[in-house]
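Q: How would the structure tokens look for this protein?
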Amino acid sequence: MLPTLPLIDSFGRLHNNLRISVTDRCNIRCFYCMPAENVQFMESSELLSFDEIERFVRVAVRLGIDKLRLTGGEPLVRRDLDQLVARLAAVPGIQDIGVTTNGILLANQAADLYAAGLRRINISLDALTPEKFKQFTRRDGFEQVIEGIHAAQRAGFDPVKINAVSVRGLTEDEIIPFGRFARETGVEVRFIEYMPLDADNAWERGKVLFAHEIIETLSSAIMPLVPVNLAESAGLPATTTAAGHGGPAEDFAFADGIGRIGFIASISQPFCASCNRIRITADGKLRNCLFSLEETDVRSLLRGDGSDDQIADAIRTSVAAKKEGHEVNTARFIQPARPMYSIGG
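A: Here is the predicted structure in token form.
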């Protein structure tokens, strides 16, 4: 019989959120995530099958996991992703499934994903011009991403969230256009502070464009941004903040209630104290933190004669070993050997 106690680490954090990388492959080459050329991807035989992913999720649900997010690489390059969504949505206890995508393939898949049970979608888009888009991605595809955003809205995703990485010296002139984009289209723009997970080890703290600077810019150029909880108390139309669900984003609304802006301030305001996430990589390695230096091999249990109890024990052991925080702001920080595309966003 599987244990049913909740997944609580030594710091009292309850874990109910599982991020599942379905592939390390990607059709663009963002500099903060992967090399520009000569990327060595995993062999397809190394990737967890849909059967293996579903089995792992069924075990994790018994331990209190009820929220899933599919990531990559680029998850939409994994064939028949909508079928995996449908299988996971049918697992008793799963309340919410999301996906993080670069949006290039989304126009042709948005309706099928929604029909399969996907309800939350985050689209990575760091710039609103083709030229700046290519600086980030080192590939073309801006127009396809915009088409994907519109397709997601037509399919019924609401809200569609846009993830924009903020880099000093590169994205200052994107701040105001993104604010206007949120107001004009109804998407929620979330600015993410540049994190040390790049394959080239080129991250520097001085390149981080901080959330408070973006708030000041938007408030000055458009109108004041108000934290969502204050907007709600003032009677402005607002939804519950992601932070209220143990997530990383702090949500704001413009003072007139039109346009949502979120901030994931992983560097300037780490949210480690309320982290509720665990991760499994595309090749079946369990990670208790995005910046973790250790992994637990779950694939060998799934492909060998490992029992569900053994898989559950592996999950519990990983969560129990979780550190207090990522230590990016200390001299003790060591960047993980795996870059972002290999870990799963």
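The domain at 7-343 is CATH 3.20.20.70 (TIM Barrel).

Confidence is low (pLDDT under 50) at residues 237-246.

Upvote if useful.
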